[in-house]
Amino acid sequence: MIATVQGPVRDRLLTAANELFYAYGLRAVSVDRVIERAGTTKVTFYRHFRSKDELLVAYLEHRAAQERAGVDAAIEHGAGDVDVTLELMANHTGTMACEPGFRGCPFINAAAEYPDPTSPVRVVVDRHRAWWASAFERLVAPLRLADPRAVAEDLVLLRDGVMVAGYLGDPSRVGASFLRSCRAVVGAAERASA
């Protein structure tokens, strides 16, 4: 019986945290506000999370898992065709940027609020950014480039830029811009490797 109750309450807390942290920022949202949105109590909150930092880490890990599943699915769907995968990623990013309430990358936002590289929040951010680099390296692996790591680093930089541009610029244009930029980076790397 306890496991049945804990799962949904934890999920409600994470859902509330996801909505509030993304919309208003990590530092601006109090634990009390998350508790209120989740419809629970402080006692129940502290049964699931020992601190706000622990909730922040869980929130970011949840967001990371969602991103990873989507990117892994795109890479799998592309089946070694880098351009097909990049097009899927660009289309998804463009669609996401046009959704109401889009505030860019939750990891970039978190890093801005938690500059200390030893904080638990930054550890999750850095781990996820490293994952992005490895995902892009897996993506370009079929091309047998001379320096796939450098290309992956360039693609991470473009991904960072598209997330910021989607929030600050014209979101209807970011998907196409991201795709053009990725194609330029990959094409230059292919020519250099030939």
From TrEMBL:
Top-level taxon: Bacteria
GO MF: DNA binding
HTH tetR-type domain segment(s): 7-67
DNA-binding region: 30-49
Gene3D superfamilies: Tetracycline Repressor, domain 2
InterPro entries with a match to the protein in the record: Homeodomain-like_sf, HTH_TetR, Tet_transcr_reg_TetR-rel_C_sf
Record key words, sorted: DNA-binding, Transcription, Transcription regulation
The protein, known as: TetR family transcriptional regulator
Gene source species: Promicromonospora citrea
